[in-house]
Amino acid sequence: MTRVWQDEDGQQYAIAPTTDDEGVRGRRLLIADADGDLDVALEVLSKPPAPMQEITATWHRPVQPLLLQRFATDVVTELLDGVVRRGQTGWLQTNIAYALSWAGLEVSRWWGPEWPLVEDGAAGNAYSEPDADAVPFAWLGLALNTGDVEIDIYQDDAYFGLCFEPQARRVLTDNDPGYFRLHESLPLPIGRIEQVRVTIDTTTLDDPFSDIVLAEAVLMVGGQPVPLIAAENYGPNEWHRLDESVVILRDSAALKNLDWHPPRPV
């Protein structure tokens, strides 16, 4: 059933369900054109529940950022009904919705403090090579057309996940330049964020003290993917998932090919 409402600007919007395709569920946000016809502005799809469950937001045409946030929050709450633990406060759903609501916005710069791979006070810290498959950061800053935002790490008991902050909270120069390698501008794609895909790790539900974790995300910017994962480097080619760094991956192949601990569920 399509629900239509009148937003604050007098524009007519609607929410409609997607067609059921092999268990894929989702919702479309539609906006009325000058003739009153409804066209898709944003689509959110969720694959069937799995150990690594994906939720994807795809941008189609401009719409108000606040409306995107409102739509994403409603849809995520619905899609994760029965997946999160009973009594969960809703913070996780809000975090996921923040990520999805960046679809359609434009990024003009990335920055952040890079963790060293090896700490050596005498010889100096060692950092990732320019062609590394994975580079760990304490957090990432993004300059969007709606303002600066951050991608950080949050902790849920023994596990860490990606945290999408709607406003920048940190200043790069607050980080110790003798320990971190500070990047005022990272060589990452800029332009419109055409799609945001988040991956929810549900295997953590085996732990009675933890909930699902926002473990990974891919931002499609100007046609180029920017894969991110909550992980940490423990030594040469040893990466631990659900840990306390925002790791940028060279490409989606690295996400599958690196040796993750614990192993990354398919």
Automatic annotation (TrEMBL):
This is Uncharacterized protein.
